[in-house]
Specification:
single chain, about 290 residues, alpha/beta, Rossmann fold, 2 domains, 4-stranded parallel sheet, about 50% helix, about 15% strand, binds D-glutamic acid
C-alpha cells in the first residue's frame, strides 16, 4: 500500500469512528420505567444523544411468557438498530432476564442490561446479607437475580417477591395514591417479616415509588436500584470502545412510544431533568 493510500484509509477510519461516536444511544423498556435509567445516563453522560423506545402498547412485559418477552425485546432492539444507535441499554429487568443473551448474539453492537448493575449496586455494601428482591413475575420466575447474587457472594439469604400490580400503578401515575401504598405494603410485609437488610428494586419502574417505599420500610433497610450503576457500566463500555460522544455536545432525548399516553408525557416532563421534545408514535413493524 502506498503512503498516500495508507493516509487516506487512516482518514476514512477516523471519519467513520467520529460518525459512530456521534450516533445516539438506544434505550428501551416496556414503558416509563426506563426513564429512571435515562435520567441516570443523562446525569453521567450529558453529551450523549438518546433515542428512547417505550413499548407502551404491549406493556406489561412482566406477566408475559419468556418467548413473548424475547420476541418483544428483539423487535425493540431492531427498531433502535434500524434508526442507527451506537449501543443499546435494555432498561427493563424482565427483558434483560429473558432476552439479553439472545440480543447480544444477534446484534453487532454493545448491549448493556440492568441486572448485572442491580447486583453490583446491592453488593456494593459488604454488609448486605439478607436481600429482598421485588420485581415483575417474569423477572422473579427467571431466577436471574437470585443466581447472579448467589454466584457473587456466598452466605446470602435471598427472598424474591413478585409485585405484578406495581407497574400498572406507576404507568397510571398513581405513585402517591393510597391504593398504591396499600399494594406496596402487601408486597413488602413478607420481606420485612423475614428481616431483610437490603431491598433491591429489580424493575426499572419501581424507583418512581421510592418515597412510598421509604415510608413503609424500616429505616435500616437499604434501598437499591440499578439505574446509576447501569449508567456507570454503559460509560465504562463506551470508554473502552472509544465511543463517547464529543464533549460539549448538547445531549438530546428523542422518545418513541408504541402507544401515546398523556400519563407518560406528564411523567417524563416532571421526572426528567431535561424535558423531552415531541413524543413520536413508533411502529415496530418497520
Ligand atoms: N420496567 C420493566 C422491568 O424493569 C418491567 C415492566 C413491565 O412489566 O412491563 O422489569
Amino acid at each position: 500500500m502506498s503512503d498516500r493510500t495508507f493516509r487516506l484509509s487512516e482518514a476514512g477510519r477516523a471519519n467513520s469512528i467520529a460518525r459512530v461516536k456521534a450516533l445516539p444511544l438506544g434505550i428501551f423498556d416496556s414503558g416509563v420505567g426506563g426513564l429512571t435509567v435515562v435520567r441516570a445516563v443523562q446525569a453521567l453522560l450529558p453529551s450523549e444523544d438518546i433515542l428512547y423506545l417505550g413499548d407502551t402498547a404491549r406493556l406489561p412485559y412482566g406477566s408475559k411468557s419468556p418467548e413473548t418477552i424475547r420476541q418483544f425485546a428483539d423487535e425493540d432492539a431492531r427498531f433502535l438498530v434500524a434508526r442507527g444507535v451506537k449501543a443499546i441499554v435494555v432498561a427493563c429487568n424482565t427483558a434483560t432476564a429473558h432476552a439479553l443473551a439472545g440480543l447480544r448474539e444477534h446484534y453487532q453492537l454493545p448491549i448493556i442490561g440492568v441486572i448485572e448493575a442491580g447486583v453490583d449496586a446491592a453488593l456494593a455494601n459488604p454488609d448486605a446479607v439478607r436481600i429482598g428482591i421485588i420485581a415483575t413475575r417474569g423477572t422473579i420466575r427467571s431466577h436471574a437475580y437470585q443466581h447472579a447474587l448467589a454466584l457473587r457472594r456466598t452466605g446470602l439469604v435471598i427472598h424474591g417477591q413478585a409485585a405484578p400490580l406495581l407497574v400498572p400503578l406507576v404507568e397510571e401515575n398513581w405513585m402517591d395514591h393510597p391504593a398504591t401504598l396499600m399494594v406496596l405494603q402487601t408486597y413488602l410485609e413478607p420481606l420485612i417479616d423475614k428481616g431483610i437488610d437490603t431491598l433491591l428494586l429489580a424493575c426499572t419502574h419501581y424507583p418512581l415509588l421510592i418515597p412510598g417505599l421509604r415510608d413503609l420500610l424500616p429505616p435500616d433497610v437499604r434501598l437499591v436500584d440499578s439505574a446509576t450503576t447501569c449508567a456507570e457500566h454503559l460509560k465504562r463500555e463506551l470508554v473502552r470502545l472509544n465511543l463517547l460522544a464529543p464533549a460539549g455536545n448538547d445531549g438530546k432525548l428523542e422518545i418513541h412510544l408504541t402507544d401515546l399516553s398523556e400519563e407518560f408525557e406528564g411523567l417524563a416532563r416532571r421526572f426528567l431533568t431535561k424535558p423531552p421534545g415531541r413524543i413520536h408514535l413508533a411502529s415496530l413493524g418497520c
